[in-house]
Amino acid sequence: MNKNTLSHRFVAILLIAAAFVALFLGLASLRDTAAPTAYAANIDSQVYQALDASPSGETTFIVYLKAHADLAPAKNIKDWDARGRFVVKQLRTTAEVSQADLLDKLGRGAVPGRISHYRSFWISNAIFVTGDRVAAEALARRPDVERIVPEMKIDPPEPPEEIVTAASPGQFDLTWGIEKIGADQVWSTYGATGQGIDIGMVDTGVQWDHPALKNSYRGWNGSSVDHNYNWYNPNPADTCDDSTTGTCDWNDHGTHTTGTAAGGDSGSPFYGDIGVAPGAEWIHALGCCPDNETLMATMEWMLAPTDLNDQNPDSDKRPQVVNNSWGGPGGSIIFEDVIESWRAAGIVPVFSAGNEGSGCGTLGSPGDNVPSFNVGSTNSSDGISSFSSRGPNPFTGRPGPEVSAPGDGIGSSVPTNSYTVFSGTSMAAPHVTGAVAVLLSAEPDLIGEVDQIEEIFRATAVQLTSSQVCGGVPGSEIPNNTFGYGRIDLLAAVEMASNAGTLSGVVTDASSGDPIADAVVSATRSGHTLTQRTDASGAYSFIVGSGSYDVKAEAFGYASATTVSASVSQDATTTQDFALSALPTDPVSGMVDEDSASSPAIEGATVELVEDYTSYITDTTTSTGDYLLSDVPHGDRVLEVSAPGYASAKTTVSVSGPTTQDFSLEPAPDYLVGDGGDTCSVAYEWIDATDGTAHNMDDDANTNVSLPFSFTFYDNSYTSVYISSNGFISFGQGYDRWHGTIPFEGPPNNAIYAFGEDLNPEGGAQGVIYTKDLGDGRFVIEYHQVEHWKSGDPETFEIILDSNDDSILLQYQTISWPDFTSVGIENDDGSRGVSYSYANNPPITAGLAVKFTPFSGQPPECATAKAPDVSIERSGDFDALLRWQHVDPNTAYEIWRHTSPYFAPDQGEGTKLSTETAVAGEMTYRDVGAVGSETQNYFYVLRGYVGGGASGSSNRVGEFDYALIPGN
Fold first, then answer.
1. 193 HSE (CA, 13 A, CB side)
2. Which helix (H) or strand (E) holds 502?
3. Distance set, CA 802 to CA 25, 115, 459, 707, 780 (Å)
């Protein structure tokens, strides 16, 4: 494989989006070649490691079945109960049908081996099993089983910052956030307090009978409590004193967030209450956050709540909105399929953005997932909280979070019957959750319309700006990566939606009458603009408050329709169709060269027409630097140019006829990648550093080590390096955790990722990291038998820094579980980098050597190995002599022999007789004893060899030369 080009800024994002499809369907990825042959191919090797390490011989693993439910029709079901029943039926039927035989055998003990626990899930068609190796392998052999993976690491919420505690709500201001978003004005003006709406909380539990929460608990009727369908705790014995009902809060966190979303206690009624939606009712699932099984159980329960015996699920009792003030490091979509199921059923999924600010690219997961509605934190002055995580979104490149809300110094309820002030995006998310409930109580027609609910909050947010630039988006733009679309304004949202009617229509091509998909339709009233994209049939539909709207439709390649005024009346439908005229098109062409005295043409530069993060037309420059974008619609168009070894460029071109636009790119530091088979590569040659300095590091740790020389990385020089326990090193700053996207401006930055993963040396008990000065200008960092979190799957690999040419060499000796790896490099702000491998694509295997060579401007030539022509002759009575001319840049030649003519040495067919070091001129090889009395044909091929890789096969000789080599 030969990689001689630098990925431009969105390649890593696209790789993630594709690679994570397999990831989130099973919480782990497939195991094709990594598992030893003694293992079942579809059992993740970490399962075997856990089994080997278990004193009982058992471990918990997840069995994923192949069948998947189709939920697409749910969006068109308007009846709340019918919609939920459809989604649950689709999911349950898929699971029940596909799991029936397996569950029957598990229930009857008919699966070979020992199984002590199993639990079926329908929300992702998976079965959690605790069993031994025999059971795992028996399950893996079933044709309906897709794969078997271990449980994944889940981070619990960080303890919130406690500022002050009080015995009653009157001792300090608990309501500034409520007043800031205008909730109190909605209560008084519209009488909407969340009544009739159910709020779901997935958190650490709740003191349900807290004075501020008891009256809004759905299980309390004013005189008695019924926790059925209202409270869920999968592990009551492990978390609560009341193991009968499992009602408790083990962390204070859940009681606080629930109070912010739906707390009461003022008795006036509502004025001065601590919750945004004191008239709503809340239910709770204690899922945060011991393990995958618990979280999946609680998220499944939210879709169809059950009684206290976990029986008789009823999707009619699902909440309209669920608050999720939990998460972990960004870039993971483990729960994305579950969130999509919520959306399909009409549930608004609100997530906190994370508390890893104030740097760019710090959004946490699942909040950064595409189907999530994630929330940043603001203070009482509408400034961004210092801890609030920032965008851009690692999967889409778009700004994030979606919106922001009060989260800094928020007073709310805590056990036992007390109140305190916490700060965090965990406090901001329930402001939005409560706001959703109030909006829906003010306008019930929006119930289930998840996309439109979220768009209303985006459109009506108080637009806030900052000086921070993230993802290339100035903080002065809306949306930006600090506040998103801004701080939510509940009053404006309700004003935009109340007394709703429907505004709908179809956008078509004026000439052909064909529907235009993905057209943007906007509806503006009172300075707020709602937008929506048309579906495949060209249709759009807004549920909006009564009033007059300016409506416009736009689509790439079409002239915008004239803005029209449309009047919407309550409970009525206003139809407004648009027929858009295609714009005339003309070519845009030009040349891309280097901004230097000689101005050489740049071959292989990518020229793109980009609008709204979408590349519509693309071309690659020829050897003369020329490009051509055909059929560019008239108007102002943004062109972006990128090329390995150069700084990217962007300009706006006004197209009204054939247009010429040239680009001159400035040279910029970059790296060429060689992984075998060319002169930019090196042959794998392991360097043992275990006799160097040992570093016994803990989980999620880093340490600074001095270098014996100055090493230049992206044009900056360093004399020390930070080594992270998670398979990467960084310069200038240490980082404990890794981010899967390369390059990405979020932390870590200025890094070399050899095996970016969640590794855990466990203080030396699960592997040691060694450093060694070779004394020749090279420094080695070896990860020796370092295991994954929690344990198992040891990995041995190394990073070699070579100060002689400032190159970087990654070598892999033992690879056990590469499925989640990130391999590559990036500069100090994440604006440039090389993503070599993501999620084991391309594969990271034992014996692999990957070299990163610095350059700037025109990339160096990387010549590949070439196979020479070869001839054969008899030598003496018994030998065959091969002759060929040396071909540059080969450093050696492999000679292969087989008894069949069309064999493939690159697939291991045949016998490799020798590897001959290259010399100039003619070369020979003597196959001693090949010619004799045996009636056997021999066939020969040569392969050139350079940089750790071999060429294809040469011509084959010997098959027709019966005089030289006896045949039958």
1. 20
2. strand 500-509
3. 41, 52, 53, 11, 9
